[in-house]
Design a protein that fits this description.
Length: 69
């Protein structure tokens, strides 16, 4: 199990939090998603054999919440 933290753009409301949580939770290999809206922070626990930091970053960008560099 691996844990990574992502600072994302465009997270402005509880609806954004729900979209991110629902989309990531449905991704194979992700076990838990924690979101701190005030910090625009998404923390993900996932299986490193199935996913990478880059895969999750790409998924966040695809759903409209690109990771800040």
């Amino acid at each position: 199990m691996k844990t990574d933290r992502f600072i994302v753009e465009n997270m402005k409301c509880a609806g954004c939090v729900n979209i991110i949580k629902n989309e990531l939770s449905q991704t194979d290999g992700i076990s838990e998603v924690y979101i701190d809206q005030a910090k625009s922070e998404v923390t993900v626990n996932y299986l490193s054999e199935k996913l990478s930091f880059t895969d999750i970053s790409r998924k966040l960008g695809q759903i409209g919440y690109p990771v800040k560099s």
